[in-house]
Specification:
- Helices cover 40% and strands 12% of the residues.
- It is of the alpha/beta class and 310 residues long.
- The chain folds into two domains: 102 residues, Rossmann fold (3-Layer(aba) Sandwich), CATH 3.40.50.11820; 180 residues, 3-Layer(aba) Sandwich (Rossmann fold).
- Helix 10 links the parallel strand 9 and strand 10.
- It has a six-stranded parallel sheet, sandwiched between helices. The protein has a four-stranded parallel sheet with strand order 1-2-3-4, sandwiched between helices.
- The protein starts with 9 loop residues before the first helix and ends with a helix.
- The longest helix has 16 residues.
């Protein structure tokens, strides 16, 4: 077995094209011979349409993906739509991500445990720990223009400033952060926030509330039964340019979808509505079903083993 993060040397290319089975994750550059089998996993259940990207691709994903790993009937319908895959090519073994969501402690590296302990201390100082995880903006892909990241950040810090009894962890997309790091300097006078120090998904089990927009983090937070708020100042512009798959925003309760700062956000952070929580638990059952996800890695291993033997 060979792990290839990117094709940085000839050895990576050699191992890739001599493999019988390729297991890829979302964002990988697909290419394979007719004798190879490509099994595709995702870093999260897609929430936004990738149709605009597909129109600009020379070849559709469906030409390269032999099997797409899925969690449930709900997620299979999403993958079928965005990758144009027939049902027999979508395998519901459960996605590897589920093992991480269920057992996060075994995935923390030693240096990441320091951040975990840091947040434990912050719980003694602040009422709640809140994670903000916006998706990428125009700093990442010209095909997906939203509002400038700095503008989005300014809107969000209205929430931070009005809720200084809570501690906020800001988890921008890495490329947005890289190009906009200077934008955070003007907010250094506030002491109730920090930039993420570990991968954003590793904060999920450590926080009370997740604030996001059109991101697959919604489904991760939904599974972990976190309080969820959608904060989406550039909603109309972003949706117009990307769309949203499977009518996702129709399943989001209206009372937690905000297109600008509102005092109602402060109220929800203070006390999450029980009715909204009930709606989210119902959505969790729709998205994930009643199945047991404790053996997702074993299920995937057995599926791959069968393919290798054929």
């Amino acid at each position: 077995m060979h792990f290839i993060k990117n094709f940085s040397n000839f050895g990576d290319i050699w191992n890739y094209f001599r493999s019988k089975v390729i297991i890829s994750s979302h964002g990988f550059n697909y290419a394979k011979s007719k004798n190879q089998i490509l099994i595709h996993t995702s870093h999260g259940i897609p929430f936004k349409s990738t149709c605009l990207l597909h129109k600009k691709c020379k070849e559709p994903y469906s030409k390269y993906i032999d099997y797409q790993i899925s969690n449930s009937e709900f997620t299979s319908a999403i993958y079928s739509q965005i990758f144009n895959l027939s049902p027999e090519r979508i395998i519901e073994t459960g996605e590897p991500l589920m093992d991480f969501l269920m057992n996060p402690d075994k995935y923390y590296a030693t240096h990441e445990l320091k951040e975990k302990e840091f947040l434990k201390l912050k719980r003694n100082e602040f009422k709640k720990i809140v994670m903000y995880a916006p998706t990428f903006r125009d700093e990442f892909l010209d095909e997906f223009p939203g509002a400038p990241f700095e503008e989005i950040l300014s809107d969000f810090f209205n929430i931070v400033e009005q809720n200084q009894n809570n501690f906020f962890i800001i988890c921008p997309h890495p490329r947005d952060l890289e190009k906009n790091i200077i934008s955070f300097e003007k907010y250094m006078h506030l002491n109730n926030w920090e930039l993420a120090k570990i991968p954003s998904e590793k904060y999920l089990s450590l926080v009370d509330t997740v604030i996001l927009d059109i991101s697959s983090f919604f489904y991760n937070a939904l599974y972990l039964e976190k309080n969820i708020i959608f904060f989406f100042p550039d909603y109309q512009k972003y949706i117009n340019n990307t769309g949203s798959i499977y009518k996702n925003f129709e399943i989001v309760p209206d009372e937690i979808l905000f297109k600008k700062y509102s005092p109602n956000i402060d109220k929800i952070l203070e006390s999450y509505p029980k009715e909204t929580k009930t709606k989210l638990l119902y959505l969790k059952d729709i998205v994930y079903g009643k199945r047991d996800y404790s053996n997702v890695n074993l299920n995937l291993y057995e599926f791959i083993s069968q393919i290798i033997k054929t």
